[in-house]
Design goal:
- By secondary structure, the chain is α/β, with parallel strands linked by helices.
- The protein has a single domain, classed as Rossmann fold.
- Helix content is 43%, strand content 19%.
- The protein has 9 helices and 6 strands; from the N terminus they run βααβααβαβαβαβαα.
- A 6-stranded parallel sheet has the order 3-2-1-4-5-6, with helices on both faces.
- α6 links the parallel β4 and β5.
- The radius of gyration is 16 Å and the shape is globular.
């Protein structure tokens, strides 16, 4: 049964958003990817949701997180380098996730049909509720339908950035975006869009 997202039970995964992969993107334009992932980081930051960002090795060849994304990552973010497609295969990442004690993960990044797929399968195997933001995924492959179908068949829940945005608001304030949320988190930034470009 699909559950609702609960901000204090969530963490975010930004998987391998690096220069090399951005240059190979076939499913979305690199500038839109950077903008959308930056807004994703801002949205999770507003709701105080920790983020694990991964970089595939060798980093000197594949690149770092773009600066406009990195600037939005706050104190609740850890950046990890990884050798495996599946982030759960990295001991440092697994240890970090165990310390978080949060069982819902919101996933964005690349490649949809490799590292995102393998990481989602690994997270599902570990008992996480996996929520994949479909319009925040990208790949060098033009057709990632089989990977998406496989993740869904294994139990990953797909949603859009807009759905995520409003579900997080509803979780904090019952959907009214009023007093409770303002008292708890402060005003939602006016320049934070509610949809992916």
């Amino acid at each position: 049964m699909v559950k609702r997202l609960v901000p204090d039970q969530c963490w975010g995964a930004i998987i391998d958003v690096q220069g090399f992969f951005l240059s190979q993107a076939r499913t979305r334009s690199p500038s839109k990817i950077r903008t959308n992932i930056r807004n994703f980081a801002r949205l999770l930051g507003y709701f105080r949701i920790p983020i694990a960002a991964t970089l595939e090795r060798p980093v000197h060849l594949k690149g770092l997180l773009p600066n406009e994304i990195k600037k939005q990552l706050g104190e609740r973010t850890e950046i990890f380098e990884k050798d495996f497609f599946d982030l759960t295969q990295e001991k440092k990442i697994r240890n970090y996730l165990e310390r978080l004690k949060r069982r819902q993960v919101i996933v964005a990044g690349c490649e949809t049909d490799v590292c995102v797929l393998q990481s989602c399968l690994g997270l599902l195997d570990l008992g996480y509720e996996v929520y994949v933001v479909e319009d925040l995924l990208f790949s060098s492959s033009r057709n990632v339908d089989a990977a998406i179908a496989r993740m869904k068949a294994q139990g990953a829940v797909f949603l859009t950035y807009k759905s995520l945005y409003y579900e997080l608001i509803a979780a904090v304030d019952g959907g009214s975006h009023a007093q409770t949320m303002l008292e708890t988190l402060g005003p939602l930034p006016e320049d934070l869009p509610d949809f992916a470009s």
